[in-house]
Design goal:
6 strands; Rossmann fold; six-stranded mixed sheet; alpha/beta; 6 helices; single chain
């Protein structure tokens, strides 16, 4: 099996926080970050561009796809971590902050299934791919590479790039994305 490179890009800064909107677009800073990461990714020999279905990821992917002359495939498999059933908008931030201090196992089967779905999707990429996704989803892949069950391993900055190798031996972390203090609002 020929090794492939998968680059996971966290979306640019959103115009609203996790507790304020389910599917916000990018703010002006996020739009600038998307253009900057597109320029950085240019010329890396990417064969496929994939995005979470959420608007902030699609808007982050668009400048790169345009620059590369490619379309963006939408994959539910790399979407944001879902809130628990019955947790309303006002309580989402508190739930996420608590979850981020624990492990996938602590969250139970619904969330280990979510994690495994992301990891399986990344592990089955057949060509060099850029995936525009989310903080927790990318951490799920990092955890799989490192054998670490924690929900958060790296505090990934907006538009950071995490690079993994996919081959017959599974996933290997080549480079962690740029980190920053993450504000869950």
């Amino acid at each position: 099996m020929t090794p492939r490179t998968v680059r996971l890009v966290r979306h640019g800064r959103a115009e609203a926080g996790w507790g304020a909107a389910v599917d916000p677009d990018l703010d002006d800073v996020g739009a600038e970050q998307a253009v900057a990461v597109a320029r950085h990714l240019a010329g890396l020999g990417v064969a496929r561009v994939v995005s979470s279905p959420l608007l902030r990821c699609r808007s982050t992917a668009r400048p790169f796809a345009d620059l590369a002359g490619m379309s963006v495939a939408i994959a539910d498999e790399v979407a944001e971590i879902p809130s628990p059933e019955g947790v309303g908008m006002a309580d989402r931030v508190a739930w996420l902050r608590g979850a981020m201090n624990g492990s996938w196992t602590d969250l139970g089967p619904r969330y280990t299934t979510y994690r495994d779905r992301i990891v399986d999707y990344v592990a089955t990429r057949e060509v060099d791919t850029v995936i525009f996704s989310h903080f927790v989803a990318i951490n799920a892949v990092i955890g799989a590479c490192l054998g670490d069950d924690r929900l958060v391993i790296h505090r990934l900055d907006n538009c950071s790039i995490t690079t993994v190798r996919v081959d017959g031996d599974g996933l290997a972390l080549l480079e962690g994305g740029r980190e920053a203090d993450t504000l869950i609002r």
